[in-house]
Design brief:
about 210 residues, alpha/beta, TIM Barrel, seven-stranded mixed β-sheet, about 25% helix, binds iron/sulfur cluster
Length: about 210
């Protein structure tokens, strides 16, 4: 099975509880105004990589991690491949939690119309709904107030207090694979552009992880 995958960062502390490995997939048809990752709307922004190769890269990380976060792009446009990746990651790392950010509303995912079950069934915590720049978020994991957070499993529910007592909102500054600065987290649009301008030289191409 193949994945369109664009980036990987670790350890990330701003996209879910504890220290996590985060993966950004490419491809999203929603085109929300104010999206933090418009460079990932086109699926060709990422590389087409075998799921097993991504898994090997994750399992090769030698650091204490608490889970895996999937963002994008739209993860549910690749639900089958990501479901497989999370299933195999959980098999190898049974203590890890899984967290997925989606632009689809929760009821759309639950309706089965998008073939979402393969990924939903491997997800402990789901953040669902499109980015709506008119409604600033107040939940640590929701960028805008229309987005909803769902604790889908016992493991997810056990993490609820930890998630909801976290700071609203914050970000990590991480280095990409070629030394470029990456802003990783949930940041208001105005602050985001100020930080980005301060960190990233003009005309810097989007960061890409090449597995
Ligand atoms: S769904 Fe997410 S990735 Fe897609 S355009 Fe909206 S905010 Fe961006």
């Amino acid at each position: 099975m193949k994945l369109h995958v664009a980036r990987m960062a670790y350890p990330v502390t701003s996209l879910g509880p504890g220290q996590r490995v985060a993966i950004w997939v490419s491809g999203c048809g929603m085109r929300c105004r104010g999206c933090i990752t418009p460079d990932l709307w086109d699926s060709s922004a990422g590389r087409v990589v075998d799921v097993d190769r991504v898994l090997q890269r994750i399992l090769a990380l030698r650091m204490p991690l608490d889970g895996i976060t999937i963002s994008g792009g739209e993860p549910f446009e690749q639900a089958a491949s990501l479901g497989r990746l999370l299933r195999d990651t959980r098999a190898a790392k049974p203590d890890w939690s899984t967290l997925v950010f989606s632009g689809f509303p929760y009821l759309t995912l639950r309706s089965g119309k998008t073939g979402a079950d393969a990924l939903l069934s491997q997800t402990d915590i789901l953040v669902a709904g499109p980015y709506d720049r008119r409604r600033p978020g107040v939940h640590p994991l929701a960028a805008t107030a229309n987005q909803t957070v769902h604790y889908l499993t016992e493991r997810g529910a056990a993490l609820r207090n930890k998630v909801e007592s976290d700071t609203v909102h914050r970000a990590d500054v991480a280095l990409g694979s070629t030394g470029e600065a990456l802003l990783v987290g949930i940041v208001a649009e105005d602050a985001r552009s100020r930080i980005h301008k301060a960190l990233v030289p003009a005309d810097t191409p989007p960061a890409a992880w090449m597995p």
